[in-house]
Amino acid sequence: MRIDVITALPGLVDGPLQHSIVRRAQDSGAVEIAVHDLREHAVGKHRQIDDFPYGGGAGMVLKPEPIFRCVEAIEDEHGEPDEVIFLTPDGEQIDQPIVNRLTMHDHLVLLAGHYKGIDQRVRDGLVTRELSIGDFVLSGGELPALVLIDAVVRLLPGVLGDASSALTDSFQDGLLDAPVYTRPAEYRGRSVPEVLRSGDHQRVEEWRDEKRLEKTRDRRPDLLPESS
Length: 228
Known about the structure:
Blueprint: E1 2-7, H1 10-14, H2 20-28, E2 32-37, E3 50-51, E4 61-62, H3 64-78, E5 83-93, H4 96-102, E6 107-112, E7 117-118, H5 120-125, E8 129-132, H6 142-153, H7 163-167, E9 186-187, E10 190-191, H8 201-219
Parallel strand pairs: 1-2, 1-6, 4-7, 5-6, 5-8
Antiparallel strand pairs: 3-4, 9-10
């Protein structure tokens, strides 16, 4: 997979991509991630990428020319992407099924907005999908882009040491994950449940299923069908 990130603040994106699973995925060749500085595609001697909104109002708006030029440069070198995704608070909220489907693509372009937003003509003419990480506003789309990258990359074949780990994560089947424990068996008066130390795999799975349903019913009842 290839992921191109378009941003006015490349330094905000570069650092986190150099660590943990995302870094290992790049080193292994499972994913190629390129960060593009929007100012490199700006027009005019002042390299301006934003301007005042038509009609007045507070804030600045990212201009259309640099964004169109950047996406077209990516397409010239790597072909048309499967999706051009704009990270925005008013987009469709990301969930695990969306992430799962995105892993089936070969090429994603992520557009991180900033300031007041981006010119609507970019949304109308370039963007194929608009996604949000929640009903709140951040200073820009860089952090949501990183969240989406992490969620997608960890599911790519060969990225996790144990592929089954991802399949048992919260939300993969609509339920939250069960509690997990490790050694020591007892710590500060709290013990690991006996069933997890029993060696009886069927009992363990039954316990986990029960705890997953219990946690989901308690914390996220909206995920459950009405009959549960």
